[in-house]
Amino acid sequence: MTLFLFFVFLGACLAAGATGALFPPGDWYRRLNKPTWVPPNWVFPVVWNILYLLMSFAGARVAGMEGSGPALAFWALQISLNALWTPVFFGLRRLKAALPVMALLWLAVLGALVFHWRVDVWAGLAFVPYLAWVTVAGALNYSVWKLNPDVEPLRPDRL
Fold first, then answer.
1. Contact 81, 105 (CB under 8 A)
2. Residue 44 has pLDDT above 60, yes or no
3. How confident is the model at residue 25, as a pLDDT?
4. Among candidates 102, 135, 123, 120, which has minimal Cα distance to 56?
5. Separation of alpha carbons 41 and 20, rounded Å
6. How far does Cα 139 stand from its chain's mean position?
7. pLDDT value, residue 103
8. 159 confidence band (pLDDT: 50, 70, 90)
9. Which fold has domain 3-154?
10. The pTM is what?
């Protein structure tokens, strides 16, 4: 693993994370009904920063290793879906439409975990907390959608 590769992967993570700044939750999200087990707001940036460091470690660790092609393909897929979920959920307020994105993200993270593990155990282990967090995020997305069936999505022509 080189420091250069770590920062390349970290740059991709930070670019995906920038969607949070482009599409912040805002007042409409604060007004939504949420399950009692929703984490406090301060937890989200802390967890995501840790996860982005772990993802960057995993990607940099396997990059260039023999057999890393599928691992890196899943790495790219998961970070793309990661970047897509925020604009769908927070940007367009399409709570239900965000669910398939979340399901695909969960599968991509699982794939990344499995294929990174096959190349390097430490890289695979770095995806375990991410899979756990995406599981919680998926349950939260589902719960918020069920608790707020009347939320009007934003139409792109009104953004």
1. yes
2. yes
3. 87
4. 123
5. 13
6. 13
7. 98
8. low
9. Ferritin (1.20.1260)
10. 0.93
How many CB atoms sit inside 10 A of residue 56's CB?
Answer: 23
Pair 95, 89: CB distance under 8 Å: yes
Residue with tokens 């057999």: 67
Residue 153 has phi, psi (to 5 degrees) of -70, 155
Measured at the alpha carbon of residue 134, what is the angle toward residues 16 and 52, in degrees to the nearest 5?
40
Contact predicate 72/120, CB 8 Å: no
Q: In the chain, at which residue ranges do the beta strands (DSSP E only) sit?
A: none
Q: 60: which 2 tokens?
A: 């940099």
Assess contact for 119 and 68: CB atoms under 8 A: yes
Q: Could you tell me which of 46, 52, 72, 70 has the C-alpha nearest to residue 11?
A: 52
pLDDT tens-digit profile of 75-113?
999 999 999 999 999 999 999 999 999 999 999 999 999
Cβ–Cβ < 8 Å for 78, 105: yes
Query: Both tokens of residue 153?
Result: 């999505």
The token duo for 119 is 């190349």
Q: Which residue, chain included where needed, has tokens 């590769």? A: 5
Span between the terminal Cα atoms of the chain, in Å:
43
